[in-house]
Amino acid sequence: MTDSKYLKRTILKEQIESRFLNETRNLRVYLPPGYNEILSYPVVYCQDGEEFFNFGRIATTANYLILDGHADPFIIVGVDVDTSVRTDEYAPFGSRFDAYTRCFAEEIIPFIEAKYPVRREASERVLAGDSLGGSVSLHLAVRYPELFRRIISLSGAYYPASQDIFEAQDDLSWLDVYMIVGLQETAFETDHGTHNFVELNRQTRELLLDRGAKVEYAEKDGKHIWGFWQKELPNALTYFFRA
């Protein structure tokens, strides 16, 4: 018995020139086993693309799920980020937030859809992110509901500035969010203070539910690290792509 079939992954590198960010942004594209360009596939877009692939091992996880029949085939697009400006891009109070969200929705999505056979309905796109990547994914959905309706949030960093924006929404009944947070995340040190991520996620869940969103929510033993999130990715992905 060998695991070699699971480890044979097709991951392509792409680059996009962003007029909003005025720079080149690197992308990683995972193609599922049996990929056929005449077919069409749902797609997961990941913030922190490099970490999702390297630390989250999302491509290997996808191979297991698809080859073992637990999930229908899907494509994954990882959007890399420069960690030195990550908060500027992912937080709503960041100096590059508007430019990044416009780049994501108005440049990255059309680029991928022109080059790969991904489905173009909002119900066939999933945004995935950890920490601030989770919150910017939710912000993207609120800003572009015609594009994004399904979110994987791994210990989302839902600071008050984000909660205020979500609270201002009247109707989020179109939204479907998978949320997980670790019970040991009650005093996590960030680059702008120490936060209780469990409480922030509980509050955000209630904000979303009160506005009609569908929320699959869980709290489990875990810290604010990839060792926790990696183990939760199979459940998160099968929630949206169960075969």
From TrEMBL:
It comes from the Bacteria. Transmembrane segments: none annotated. PANTHER family: ENTEROCHELIN ESTERASE-RELATED, IRON(III) ENTEROBACTIN ESTERASE. This is Esterase family protein.
